[in-house]
Protein backbone atom coordinates (compact mmCIF):
# COMPACT_ATOMS: atom_id res chain seq x y z
CA UNK A 1 0.00 0.00 0.00
CA UNK A 2 1.41 3.39 -1.01
CA UNK A 3 0.43 6.92 -0.15
CA UNK A 4 -1.57 8.87 -2.70
CA UNK A 5 0.03 12.03 -4.04
CA UNK A 6 -2.83 14.03 -2.51
CA UNK A 7 -1.88 12.89 1.03
CA UNK A 8 0.92 14.88 2.61
CA UNK A 9 3.73 12.61 3.84
CA UNK A 10 4.68 12.95 7.49
CA UNK A 11 8.21 14.32 7.91
CA UNK A 12 9.60 12.78 11.10
CA UNK A 13 13.14 14.16 10.98
CA UNK A 14 12.10 17.85 10.85
CA UNK A 15 10.07 17.25 14.01
CA UNK A 16 12.86 15.44 15.85
CA UNK A 17 15.60 17.80 14.69
CA UNK A 18 13.77 21.01 15.58
CA UNK A 19 15.19 22.22 18.94
CA UNK A 20 11.85 23.87 19.68
CA UNK A 21 10.19 20.46 19.78
CA UNK A 22 10.46 19.44 23.42
CA UNK A 23 7.70 16.85 23.77
CA UNK A 24 6.46 14.16 21.38
CA UNK A 25 3.34 12.29 22.50
CA UNK A 26 2.50 8.96 20.84
CA UNK A 27 -1.18 8.23 21.34
CA UNK A 28 -3.78 5.87 19.97
CA UNK A 29 -5.77 2.79 20.88
CA UNK A 30 -4.16 -0.27 22.45
CA UNK A 31 -2.19 -2.79 20.44
CA UNK A 32 -1.21 -0.57 17.49
CA UNK A 33 2.51 -0.24 18.23
CA UNK A 34 2.68 2.96 20.29
CA UNK A 35 5.49 1.70 22.53
CA UNK A 36 7.63 0.53 19.61
CA UNK A 37 7.01 3.79 17.74
CA UNK A 38 7.96 5.88 20.79
CA UNK A 39 11.14 3.87 21.32
CA UNK A 40 12.10 4.10 17.64
CA UNK A 41 11.60 7.87 17.70
CA UNK A 42 13.73 8.12 20.82
CA UNK A 43 16.59 6.13 19.27
CA UNK A 44 16.49 8.13 16.04
CA UNK A 45 16.38 11.51 17.82
CA UNK A 46 19.26 10.55 20.15
CA UNK A 47 21.43 9.41 17.26
CA UNK A 48 20.71 12.68 15.48
CA UNK A 49 22.03 14.71 18.41
CA UNK A 50 19.14 15.16 20.86
CA UNK A 51 19.23 14.34 24.58
CA UNK A 52 16.12 12.20 24.85
CA UNK A 53 14.14 10.45 27.55
CA UNK A 54 11.41 7.97 26.60
CA UNK A 55 8.60 7.61 29.13
CA UNK A 56 6.61 4.42 28.66
CA UNK A 57 3.56 3.22 30.55
CA UNK A 58 3.50 -0.25 28.96
CA UNK A 59 4.20 -2.78 31.75
CA UNK A 60 5.56 -5.33 29.23
CA UNK A 61 9.32 -5.83 29.24
CA UNK A 62 9.66 -5.59 25.45
CA UNK A 63 10.93 -2.01 25.49
CA UNK A 64 13.58 -2.73 28.12
CA UNK A 65 14.75 -5.79 26.20
CA UNK A 66 14.91 -4.00 22.88
CA UNK A 67 17.00 -1.25 24.47
CA UNK A 68 19.37 -3.66 26.15
CA UNK A 69 18.27 -2.75 29.69
CA UNK A 70 17.57 -5.43 32.27
CA UNK A 71 14.66 -3.57 33.80
CA UNK A 72 12.91 -0.22 33.54
CA UNK A 73 11.52 1.56 36.57
CA UNK A 74 10.48 5.03 37.73
CA UNK A 75 14.03 6.41 37.33
CA UNK A 76 15.37 7.31 33.85
CA UNK A 77 18.18 4.94 32.88
CA UNK A 78 20.72 5.52 30.14
CA UNK A 79 20.40 3.19 27.14
CA UNK A 80 23.69 1.60 26.04
CA UNK A 81 24.57 1.05 22.40
CA UNK A 82 23.37 4.42 21.12
CA UNK A 83 25.60 6.10 18.54
CA UNK A 84 26.56 9.29 20.36
CA UNK A 85 28.80 10.71 17.63
CA UNK A 86 26.29 13.54 17.05
CA UNK A 87 26.29 14.41 20.76
CA UNK A 88 22.97 12.81 21.68
CA UNK A 89 22.03 10.33 24.36
CA UNK A 90 18.98 8.26 25.24
CA UNK A 91 17.37 7.49 28.60
CA UNK A 92 14.29 5.36 29.19
CA UNK A 93 11.93 4.79 32.08
CA UNK A 94 8.66 3.06 32.84
CA UNK A 95 6.01 4.81 34.87
CA UNK A 96 5.49 3.40 38.37
CA UNK A 97 2.06 4.79 39.12
CA UNK A 98 2.11 4.29 42.89
CA UNK A 99 5.69 5.48 43.30
CA UNK A 100 4.93 8.65 41.35
CA UNK A 101 1.92 9.32 43.60
CA UNK A 102 4.11 8.72 46.67
CA UNK A 103 6.71 11.17 45.36
CA UNK A 104 4.03 13.85 44.98
CA UNK A 105 2.90 13.33 48.57
CA UNK A 106 6.45 13.39 49.90
CA UNK A 107 7.27 16.55 47.94
CA UNK A 108 4.18 18.55 48.94
CA UNK A 109 3.45 17.50 52.53
CA UNK A 110 5.44 17.73 55.73
CA UNK A 111 7.02 14.54 57.02
CA UNK A 112 4.31 13.69 59.57
CA UNK A 113 1.42 14.32 57.20
CA UNK A 114 3.14 12.46 54.38
CA UNK A 115 3.53 9.41 56.61
CA UNK A 116 -0.14 9.57 57.58
CA UNK A 117 -1.18 9.73 53.94
CA UNK A 118 1.13 6.96 52.73
CA UNK A 119 -0.05 4.60 55.47
CA UNK A 120 -3.72 5.33 54.88
CA UNK A 121 -5.54 2.27 53.45
CA UNK A 122 -7.78 4.40 51.23
CA UNK A 123 -4.76 6.20 49.78
CA UNK A 124 -3.04 2.89 49.08
CA UNK A 125 -6.07 1.72 47.11
CA UNK A 126 -6.42 5.07 45.35
CA UNK A 127 -2.77 5.26 44.31
CA UNK A 128 -2.72 1.67 43.06
CA UNK A 129 -5.86 1.42 41.01
CA UNK A 130 -8.28 4.36 41.05
CA UNK A 131 -9.82 4.94 37.62
CA UNK A 132 -7.72 7.49 35.74
CA UNK A 133 -4.85 7.44 38.23
CA UNK A 134 -2.41 5.90 35.75
CA UNK A 135 -3.20 8.49 33.09
CA UNK A 136 -3.01 11.34 35.62
CA UNK A 137 0.31 10.09 36.98
CA UNK A 138 1.68 9.90 33.45
CA UNK A 139 0.93 13.60 33.10
CA UNK A 140 2.45 14.29 36.52
CA UNK A 141 5.63 12.47 35.54
CA UNK A 142 5.73 14.35 32.24
CA UNK A 143 5.51 17.63 34.16
CA UNK A 144 8.32 16.52 36.49
CA UNK A 145 10.62 15.55 33.62
CA UNK A 146 9.97 18.81 31.80
CA UNK A 147 10.63 20.83 34.94
CA UNK A 148 14.00 19.12 35.51
CA UNK A 149 15.18 20.36 32.11
CA UNK A 150 17.81 17.60 31.85
CA UNK A 151 16.58 16.48 28.43
CA UNK A 152 15.78 18.56 25.39
CA UNK A 153 13.24 16.01 24.08
CA UNK A 154 10.71 13.90 25.97
CA UNK A 155 8.93 11.11 24.08
CA UNK A 156 5.78 9.89 25.81
CA UNK A 157 4.13 6.54 25.22
CA UNK A 158 0.57 7.07 26.45
CA UNK A 159 -1.11 4.43 28.66
CA UNK A 160 -2.64 1.38 26.99
CA UNK A 161 -6.36 1.86 27.42
CA UNK A 162 -9.63 1.00 25.75
CA UNK A 163 -10.07 4.64 24.84
CA UNK A 164 -7.30 6.84 23.50
CA UNK A 165 -9.02 9.81 25.14
CA UNK A 166 -8.25 8.68 28.70
CA UNK A 167 -4.88 10.42 28.67
CA UNK A 168 -6.46 13.80 28.02
CA UNK A 169 -9.46 13.21 30.27
CA UNK A 170 -7.51 12.09 33.35
CA UNK A 171 -6.86 15.57 34.85
CA UNK A 172 -10.51 16.52 34.39
CA UNK A 173 -11.72 13.28 35.98
CA UNK A 174 -9.39 13.63 38.95
CA UNK A 175 -10.39 17.27 39.33
CA UNK A 176 -14.07 16.28 39.30
CA UNK A 177 -13.36 13.71 41.98
CA UNK A 178 -11.56 16.22 44.17
CA UNK A 179 -14.27 18.83 43.62
CA UNK A 180 -17.11 16.37 44.21
CA UNK A 181 -19.75 17.05 46.81
CA UNK A 182 -18.81 13.99 48.86
CA UNK A 183 -15.16 15.10 49.11
CA UNK A 184 -16.25 18.64 50.01
CA UNK A 185 -18.40 17.31 52.83
CA UNK A 186 -15.50 15.30 54.19
CA UNK A 187 -13.15 18.29 53.83
CA UNK A 188 -15.45 20.71 55.66
CA UNK A 189 -14.33 19.80 59.23
CA UNK A 190 -10.69 20.32 58.32
CA UNK A 191 -11.46 23.72 56.83
CA UNK A 192 -13.45 24.84 59.91
CA UNK A 193 -10.77 23.55 62.28
CA UNK A 194 -10.61 22.96 66.02
CA UNK A 195 -13.59 21.97 68.16
CA UNK A 196 -16.01 23.67 65.81
CA UNK A 197 -14.82 21.41 63.06
CA UNK A 198 -15.17 18.33 65.21
CA UNK A 199 -18.65 19.40 66.29
CA UNK A 200 -19.61 19.96 62.64
CA UNK A 201 -18.17 16.58 61.76
CA UNK A 202 -20.08 14.92 64.62
CA UNK A 203 -23.38 16.42 63.52
CA UNK A 204 -22.77 15.73 59.86
CA UNK A 205 -21.60 12.20 60.37
CA UNK A 206 -24.49 11.39 62.67
CA UNK A 207 -26.85 12.29 59.85
CA UNK A 208 -24.91 10.40 57.17
CA UNK A 209 -23.42 7.54 59.15
CA UNK A 210 -26.30 5.16 58.63
CA UNK A 211 -26.54 5.30 54.83
CA UNK A 212 -22.77 5.66 54.31
CA UNK A 213 -21.92 2.82 56.65
CA UNK A 214 -24.25 0.57 54.69
CA UNK A 215 -22.80 1.79 51.41
CA UNK A 216 -19.10 1.91 52.24
CA UNK A 217 -18.57 0.24 55.58
CA UNK A 218 -17.62 2.07 58.77
CA UNK A 219 -13.88 1.41 58.51
CA UNK A 220 -13.64 2.53 54.88
CA UNK A 221 -15.55 5.70 55.71
CA UNK A 222 -13.09 6.51 58.49
CA UNK A 223 -10.15 5.81 56.14
CA UNK A 224 -11.60 8.17 53.52
CA UNK A 225 -12.20 10.86 56.13
CA UNK A 226 -8.64 10.58 57.45
CA UNK A 227 -7.23 10.63 53.93
CA UNK A 228 -9.21 13.72 52.92
CA UNK A 229 -8.23 15.56 56.08
CA UNK A 230 -4.54 14.82 55.49
CA UNK A 231 -4.70 15.67 51.76
CA UNK A 232 -6.65 18.89 52.21
CA UNK A 233 -3.69 21.20 51.61
CA UNK A 234 -2.56 19.18 48.57
CA UNK A 235 -5.81 19.08 46.59
CA UNK A 236 -5.23 22.49 45.10
CA UNK A 237 -1.74 21.46 44.04
CA UNK A 238 -3.09 18.49 42.09
CA UNK A 239 -5.40 20.70 40.10
CA UNK A 240 -2.74 23.37 39.54
CA UNK A 241 -0.18 20.89 38.25
CA UNK A 242 -2.75 19.14 36.09
CA UNK A 243 -3.73 22.46 34.51
CA UNK A 244 -0.07 23.38 33.97
CA UNK A 245 0.70 20.05 32.26
CA UNK A 246 -2.41 20.40 30.11
CA UNK A 247 -1.22 23.82 28.95
CA UNK A 248 2.21 22.31 28.29
CA UNK A 249 0.58 19.78 25.95
CA UNK A 250 -1.10 22.63 24.08
CA UNK A 251 2.16 24.55 23.60
CA UNK A 252 3.80 24.79 20.15
CA UNK A 253 6.80 22.78 21.41
CA UNK A 254 4.63 19.67 21.73
CA UNK A 255 3.90 17.33 18.82
CA UNK A 256 1.16 14.69 18.98
CA UNK A 257 1.55 11.60 16.79
CA UNK A 258 -1.57 9.48 16.46
CA UNK A 259 -0.51 5.85 16.01
CA UNK A 260 -2.84 3.34 14.37
CA UNK A 261 -2.95 0.14 12.34
CA UNK A 262 -4.70 -0.12 8.96
CA UNK A 263 -7.77 -1.65 10.57
CA UNK A 264 -11.26 -0.25 10.74
CA UNK A 265 -11.57 0.05 14.52
CA UNK A 266 -8.07 1.46 15.03
CA UNK A 267 -8.49 4.11 12.33
CA UNK A 268 -11.98 5.00 13.52
CA UNK A 269 -10.56 5.73 16.96
CA UNK A 270 -7.62 7.55 15.38
CA UNK A 271 -10.07 9.80 13.50
CA UNK A 272 -11.96 10.49 16.71
CA UNK A 273 -8.71 11.33 18.48
CA UNK A 274 -7.64 13.69 15.68
CA UNK A 275 -10.93 15.53 16.09
CA UNK A 276 -10.49 15.68 19.87
CA UNK A 277 -6.97 17.11 19.55
CA UNK A 278 -8.30 19.76 17.21
CA UNK A 279 -11.09 20.61 19.65
CA UNK A 280 -8.57 20.94 22.49
CA UNK A 281 -6.24 23.00 20.27
CA UNK A 282 -3.35 20.60 20.71
CA UNK A 283 -0.61 20.44 18.03
CA UNK A 284 -1.08 17.38 15.83
CA UNK A 285 1.99 16.39 13.82
CA UNK A 286 0.40 13.53 11.90
CA UNK A 287 -0.63 9.88 11.73
CA UNK A 288 1.75 6.92 11.96
CA UNK A 289 0.20 3.87 10.29
CA UNK A 290 1.92 0.70 11.49
CA UNK A 291 1.87 -2.86 10.12
CA UNK A 292 1.03 -1.91 6.56
CA UNK A 293 1.23 -4.80 4.12
CA UNK A 294 2.80 -4.54 0.71
CA UNK A 295 3.66 -6.66 -2.32
CA UNK A 296 6.50 -6.75 -4.78
CA UNK A 297 4.10 -7.86 -7.50
CA UNK A 298 1.27 -5.40 -6.97
CA UNK A 299 0.52 -5.24 -10.71
CA UNK A 300 -0.74 -8.84 -10.56
CA UNK A 301 -4.30 -8.45 -9.27
CA UNK A 302 -6.05 -10.95 -7.04
CA UNK A 303 -8.45 -11.88 -9.84
CA UNK A 304 -5.69 -12.61 -12.35
CA UNK A 305 -3.71 -14.59 -9.76
CA UNK A 306 -6.73 -16.76 -8.92
CA UNK A 307 -7.51 -17.30 -12.59
CA UNK A 308 -3.93 -18.42 -13.25
CA UNK A 309 -4.02 -20.75 -10.23
CA UNK A 310 -7.27 -22.26 -11.44
CA UNK A 311 -5.84 -22.79 -14.93
CA UNK A 312 -2.79 -24.53 -13.51
CA UNK A 313 -4.71 -26.87 -11.22
CA UNK A 314 -7.46 -27.76 -13.69
CA UNK A 315 -4.97 -28.49 -16.48
CA UNK A 316 -2.38 -30.31 -14.43
CA UNK A 317 -3.39 -33.93 -15.26
CA UNK A 318 -4.03 -33.14 -18.92
CA UNK A 319 -1.16 -30.87 -19.87
CA UNK A 320 1.75 -31.18 -17.45
CA UNK A 321 3.45 -33.84 -19.55
CA UNK A 322 3.85 -31.16 -22.21
CA UNK A 323 5.69 -28.85 -19.80
CA UNK A 324 8.98 -30.74 -19.70
CA UNK A 325 10.39 -28.85 -22.68
CA UNK A 326 11.04 -31.95 -24.83
CA UNK A 327 8.21 -31.30 -27.25
CA UNK A 328 4.58 -32.33 -27.62
CA UNK A 329 3.82 -35.85 -26.41
CA UNK A 330 1.15 -37.90 -28.19
CA UNK A 331 -1.39 -39.37 -25.79
CA UNK A 332 -2.57 -42.97 -26.17
CA UNK A 333 -6.18 -41.82 -26.19
CA UNK A 334 -5.60 -39.35 -29.02
CA UNK A 335 -7.07 -39.46 -32.50
CA UNK A 336 -4.57 -42.08 -33.77
CA UNK A 337 -6.20 -44.70 -36.09
CA UNK A 338 -7.19 -45.39 -39.71
CA UNK A 339 -10.07 -44.27 -41.81
CA UNK A 340 -12.12 -46.81 -43.82
CA UNK A 341 -12.68 -46.44 -47.51
CA UNK A 342 -16.44 -46.60 -47.03
CA UNK A 343 -16.56 -43.71 -44.58
CA UNK A 344 -13.34 -41.69 -44.40
CA UNK A 345 -14.91 -39.53 -41.71
CA UNK A 346 -15.09 -42.40 -39.21
CA UNK A 347 -11.95 -43.05 -37.23
CA UNK A 348 -11.26 -46.64 -36.32
CA UNK A 349 -9.23 -46.85 -33.10
CA UNK A 350 -5.92 -48.61 -33.52
CA UNK A 351 -3.92 -50.27 -30.80
CA UNK A 352 -0.74 -48.26 -30.89
CA UNK A 353 0.84 -50.09 -28.00
CA UNK A 354 1.70 -53.24 -29.95
CA UNK A 355 4.69 -53.48 -32.29
CA UNK A 356 2.36 -54.70 -35.05
CA UNK A 357 0.63 -51.32 -35.14
CA UNK A 358 3.58 -49.81 -36.92
CA UNK A 359 3.85 -46.94 -34.37
CA UNK A 360 7.22 -46.28 -32.70
CA UNK A 361 7.56 -48.01 -29.32
CA UNK A 362 9.25 -46.03 -26.51
CA UNK A 363 12.09 -47.67 -24.65
CA UNK A 364 11.31 -48.69 -21.09
CA UNK A 365 13.94 -46.34 -19.59
CA UNK A 366 12.58 -43.44 -21.60
CA UNK A 367 9.08 -44.09 -20.27
CA UNK A 368 10.36 -43.94 -16.71
CA UNK A 369 12.11 -40.63 -17.36
CA UNK A 370 8.99 -39.19 -18.99
CA UNK A 371 6.82 -40.20 -16.03
CA UNK A 372 9.24 -38.58 -13.55
CA UNK A 373 9.35 -35.41 -15.62
CA UNK A 374 5.55 -35.26 -15.77
CA UNK A 375 5.29 -35.79 -12.01
CA UNK A 376 7.83 -33.02 -11.38
CA UNK A 377 5.96 -30.68 -13.69
CA UNK A 378 2.69 -31.45 -11.93
CA UNK A 379 4.25 -30.74 -8.53
CA UNK A 380 5.66 -27.46 -9.81
CA UNK A 381 2.28 -26.47 -11.19
CA UNK A 382 0.56 -27.19 -7.88
CA UNK A 383 3.21 -25.21 -5.99
CA UNK A 384 2.84 -22.29 -8.38
CA UNK A 385 -0.95 -22.41 -7.97
CA UNK A 386 -0.58 -22.29 -4.18
CA UNK A 387 1.74 -19.29 -4.38
CA UNK A 388 -0.70 -17.53 -6.69
CA UNK A 389 -3.52 -18.08 -4.20
CA UNK A 390 -1.35 -16.68 -1.39
CA UNK A 391 -0.61 -13.65 -3.55
CA UNK A 392 -4.34 -13.20 -4.23
CA UNK A 393 -5.05 -13.23 -0.50
CA UNK A 394 -2.29 -10.68 0.09
CA UNK A 395 -3.72 -8.41 -2.60
CA UNK A 396 -7.13 -8.62 -0.95
CA UNK A 397 -5.56 -7.56 2.35
CA UNK A 398 -3.84 -4.66 0.58
CA UNK A 399 -7.10 -3.57 -1.01
CA UNK A 400 -8.92 -3.70 2.33
CA UNK A 401 -6.19 -1.69 4.06
CA UNK A 402 -6.21 0.83 1.21
CA UNK A 403 -9.98 1.33 1.48
CA UNK A 404 -9.74 1.74 5.26
CA UNK A 405 -6.92 4.27 4.98
CA UNK A 406 -8.67 6.15 2.18
CA UNK A 407 -11.73 6.60 4.40
CA UNK A 408 -9.53 8.21 7.06
CA UNK A 409 -7.72 10.50 4.61
CA UNK A 410 -11.04 11.52 3.04
CA UNK A 411 -12.25 12.67 6.46
CA UNK A 412 -8.93 14.29 7.43
CA UNK A 413 -6.99 15.22 4.28
CA UNK A 414 -5.00 17.79 6.25
CA UNK A 415 -3.31 15.14 8.43
CA UNK A 416 0.15 14.02 7.18
CA UNK A 417 0.62 10.24 7.13
CA UNK A 418 3.64 7.96 7.52
CA UNK A 419 3.31 4.25 6.80
CA UNK A 420 5.49 1.55 8.38
CA UNK A 421 5.58 -1.76 6.56
CA UNK A 422 4.61 -4.86 8.50
CA UNK A 423 7.66 -6.73 9.79
CA UNK A 424 7.98 -10.52 9.82
CA UNK A 425 8.55 -10.56 13.60
CA UNK A 426 8.64 -8.46 16.75
CA UNK A 427 11.22 -5.73 17.25
CA UNK A 428 13.58 -6.96 19.96
CA UNK A 429 16.76 -4.88 19.71
CA UNK A 430 18.18 -1.47 18.82
CA UNK A 431 18.74 -2.53 15.21
CA UNK A 432 15.02 -3.20 14.86
CA UNK A 433 14.17 0.16 16.40
CA UNK A 434 16.56 1.88 14.01
CA UNK A 435 14.88 0.11 11.10
CA UNK A 436 11.49 1.40 12.25
CA UNK A 437 12.89 4.93 12.53
CA UNK A 438 14.37 4.71 9.04
CA UNK A 439 11.04 3.58 7.60
CA UNK A 440 9.26 6.42 9.36
CA UNK A 441 11.66 9.03 8.02
CA UNK A 442 12.26 7.88 4.46
CA UNK A 443 8.76 8.50 3.10
CA UNK A 444 8.84 12.29 3.12
CA UNK A 445 12.29 12.20 1.51
CA UNK A 446 11.09 9.84 -1.21
CA UNK A 447 8.11 12.06 -1.96
CA UNK A 448 10.39 15.12 -2.09
CA UNK A 449 12.65 13.37 -4.61
CA UNK A 450 9.64 12.38 -6.72
CA UNK A 451 8.49 16.01 -6.78
CA UNK A 452 11.69 18.08 -6.73
CA UNK A 453 14.56 15.64 -7.21
CA UNK A 454 17.27 14.79 -4.66
CA UNK A 455 17.86 17.30 -1.88
CA UNK A 456 21.28 18.56 -0.88
CA UNK A 457 22.40 17.30 2.49
CA UNK A 458 24.09 19.36 5.16
CA UNK A 459 27.48 18.04 3.99
CA UNK A 460 26.92 19.30 0.43
CA UNK A 461 26.18 15.85 -1.01
CA UNK A 462 22.90 14.49 -2.22
CA UNK A 463 21.00 12.91 0.63
CA UNK A 464 18.35 13.39 3.25
CA UNK A 465 20.30 15.11 5.99
CA UNK A 466 18.96 17.87 8.18
CA UNK A 467 19.38 21.38 6.77
CA UNK A 468 18.89 24.81 8.21
CA UNK A 469 16.50 25.56 5.37
CA UNK A 470 14.36 22.60 6.36
CA UNK A 471 14.16 23.89 9.91
CA UNK A 472 13.22 27.32 8.68
CA UNK A 473 10.41 26.02 6.50
CA UNK A 474 9.03 23.74 9.21
CA UNK A 475 9.80 25.46 12.51
CA UNK A 476 6.94 23.99 14.48
CA UNK A 477 4.85 20.83 14.57
CA UNK A 478 1.65 21.07 12.56
CA UNK A 479 -1.32 22.52 14.44
CA UNK A 480 -4.55 20.79 13.60
CA UNK A 481 -7.48 23.09 12.84
CA UNK A 482 -9.98 23.83 15.53
CA UNK A 483 -13.21 21.88 15.55
Strand content: 5-15%
Total DSSP helices: 17
Order of helices and strands: HEHEHEEHHHHEHHHHEHEHHEEHEHH
Q: Mean pLDDT across all residues, rounded?
A: 75
Gross morphology: elongated
Side by side, the strands of the main sheet go 3-4-2-5-1-6-7-10
Rounded to an integer in angstroms, the radius of gyration calculated over CA atoms is 34 Å
Q: Helicity, in percent? A: 40-55%
Structural class: alpha/beta
Low-confidence stretches: 190-216, 317-329, 331-342, 344-348, 451-483
Number of strands: 10
Main β-sheet description: 8 strands, mixed
Give the N-to-C terminal Cα separation: 30 Å
Organism: Streptomyces griseocarneus
Region (Disordered): 322-378, 444-483
Domain ArsA/GET3 Anion-transporting ATPase-like: 21-292
InterPro entries: ArsA/GET3_ATPase-like (IPR025723), ATPase_ArsA/GET3 (IPR016300), P-loop_NTPase (IPR027417)
Question: What does this entry show, briefly?
Answer:
This protein has 483 residues and is an alpha/beta fold. It is built from 17 helices and 10 strands. Helix 2 crosses helix 16 (430-452), helix 9 (181-192) runs antiparallel to helix 10 and helix 10 crosses helix 11 (218-250).
Structure commentary:
There is one protein chain. This protein has 17 helices and 10 strands. The strands form 2 sheets. The chain has an 8-stranded mixed beta sheet, sandwiched between helices. Residues 190-216, 317-329, 331-342, 344-348 and 451-483 have low confidence and may be disordered. The longest helix is centred in the last third of the chain and has 48 residues, at 364-411. By secondary structure, it is an alpha/beta fold. Residues 444-469 have a biased composition (Basic and acidic residues).
Amino acid sequence: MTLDQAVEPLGIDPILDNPRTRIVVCCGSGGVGKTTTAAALGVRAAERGRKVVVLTIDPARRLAQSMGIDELDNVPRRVPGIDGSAGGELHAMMLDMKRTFDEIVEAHADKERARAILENPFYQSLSAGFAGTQEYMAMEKLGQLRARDEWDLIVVDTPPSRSALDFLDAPVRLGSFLDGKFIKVLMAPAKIGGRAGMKFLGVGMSVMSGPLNKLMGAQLLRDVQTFVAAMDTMFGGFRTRADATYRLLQAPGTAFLVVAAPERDALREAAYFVERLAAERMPLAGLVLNRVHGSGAARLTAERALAAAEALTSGTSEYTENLDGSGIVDRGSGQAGSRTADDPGIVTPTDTSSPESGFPQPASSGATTSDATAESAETSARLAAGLLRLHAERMRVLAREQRTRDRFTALHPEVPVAEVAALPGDVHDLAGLRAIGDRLAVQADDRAEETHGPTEGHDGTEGHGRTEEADATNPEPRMSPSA
